Amino acid sequence: MKKYRFIKLVLSVLLGFICTTAFSQTEIKSKVSDFLTFLPIENANVYIKNTTIGTISNTDGKFVLQVPEEHVNDTLIISSIGYQSFKTVISEFDDSIDVYLEEDIASLDEVVIVAETRPKTGNDIVLRALEELPDNLPEYPYLQKGFLRHKERNKKEYKWLIESALTIYDSSFASGSRRNLKINVDENRKSYDLRDIDSLFTYSSYLKSTGMNINARSQKLRRDTIRTASLVKAIKWNDERVNGLENLFKGKLNLVRNSNMKKALFGEGMLDKHQFRLDTILVDDGRKIYKIEIAKSKDFIGLNTPNIYNEGFEARGWIYIYWDNFAIKRLEYELVAASDVQKRRSKSLFDTQVNHKLVITYKEYGEKMYPNYFYYETPKLVKIGDRSSEREQKEKELGIDKDEQFYYTIQEILFTEIIQDPIAVEQALQQEWTSDIFSPRPYNEEFWERYNVLLESEEEEQLIQDLSRRATLYKQ
């Protein structure tokens, strides 16, 4: 019996050691800054060479990366468009000092003169990049693991915050995203919601959508007359209608992935609504990359969102395309109110002319480009209030603060792992999938200790602390 207990004890210790080794990780953190200006570099890529493990720097230039033990002797690369890359063995990385990147720019004149057979204008380069998408985007099914930070705020505080671990399935670029792209929310954390006093417009819209014969206008509604359960239902309805992940990944604003869908913004007739101007040639991790300006064309842009007036925009922004294979690396895209109707509407309802702000970056793996980071920002209707010509004077007399009145929603998604194994992909598809980020889930502390996340900025940390101290509709 003693011998049996001894063997059992040894096996338990060995099993514990194996599990500890399997899950052991090294955490590295630092700050990425410009060598000349000392200013932080946002969205710098931080990754382990020849793997899909990585993260990006936040608005303060700071990052944190969980490195599995088997990769501690691999190379860490920190890169950003227009800078020379920083490379070091992970085990030798010194996180007590900041990482400084030096500027690295190619000669536009030299490149254009040498490249006589290549497209020379911004329009031609972008059209060529779209033609090359079937070769540059994945052609086989794959999974991606990612981290979502979904927040709603005004200029002073957060009203809502959700952080989720995601799995994305995509069958290929050639297939339509509506039926062949799936999203699953694996875990949730930090699910706070203070919008119960600020969502009366949502409630009145919800009543109309359900066909209830109630003459409800948001400026006449009072929070103390509405049951919390009813308000929660209205908020969730609006979240799924406007802010759901399905809309972002399967809709028009997924500009590159969905450029092959009907009436895509980067589809047929694109140059009627966009013009592209070659600005310069930069360098990204040793490769030349075109920097191209996005500007307005002859027609307005519309999103044709059901039940939402979403027309009358013009585009502006930047698109970065690799010189050697015409792969799209980064897209910065804004839709700005341009028609007279949209300008008046945007000013009155949102106090901004920028209705949609989008950043998408890609990373190369196995000679294919995979999504790396999404940033989506849009203003949000909360309550209409007084829309008369005397509104500003009345609000001033009442002491209404604009910084508290106007809201916007931000979704950030950092992709941290690519899974291509057909068996793993097939097994994942057999499970039940849900893209609902709005339902609270139990907090899984062990899971989040090992999961790569997007580091919060110093401002965000403070706002999150303030939010977590207050009452919430959804109890953690």
Question: Key terms for this structure?
Answer:
2 domains, four-stranded antiparallel β-sheet, 476 residues, alpha+beta, Immunoglobulin-like, globular, 14 helices, 17 strands, ten-stranded antiparallel β-sheet, disordered C terminus
Describe the protein in words.
The longest helix is centred in the first third of the chain and has 22 residues. The chain is globular and about 60 Å long. It has two domains: 79 residues, Sandwich (Immunoglobulin-like); 299 residues, no CATH class. Helix 6 crosses helix 7. The chain is of the alpha+beta class and 476 residues long. A hairpin with a 2-residue loop joins strand 15 and strand 16. The strands form three sheets. A ten-stranded antiparallel beta sheet has the order 10-9-8-17-16-15-14-13-12-11, sandwiched between helices. The chain has a four-stranded antiparallel beta sheet with strand order 3-2-5-6, with no helix packed on it. A three-stranded mixed beta sheet has the order 4-1-7.
- Total strand count, please? 17
Uncertain spans, ≥5 residues at pLDDT below 50? 1-22, 471-476
Overall spatial form: globular
* Distance linking N and C termini: 47 Å
What is shown here, in short?
26% of the residues lie in helices and 32% in strands. The protein is built from 14 helices and 17 strands.
Please outline the helices and strands.
Blueprint: H1 2-23, E1 25-34, E2 45-48, E3 54-56, E4 62-68, E5 75-79, E6 86-89, E7 99-101, H2 108-114, H3 122-131, H4 133-136, E8 142-153, E9 158-170, H5 177-180, E10 181-193, H6 200-209, H7 228-243, H8 245-250, E11 274-284, E12 287-296, E13 313-322, E14 328-337, H9 340-350, E15 354-365, E16 368-380, H10 391-398, H11 402-405, E17 407-419, H12 422-429, H13 445-449, H14 458-468
Parallel strand pairs: 1-7
Antiparallel strand pairs: 1-4, 2-3, 2-5, 5-6, 8-9, 8-17, 9-10, 11-12, 12-13, 13-14, 14-15, 15-16, 16-17
Helix pairs in contact: 6-7
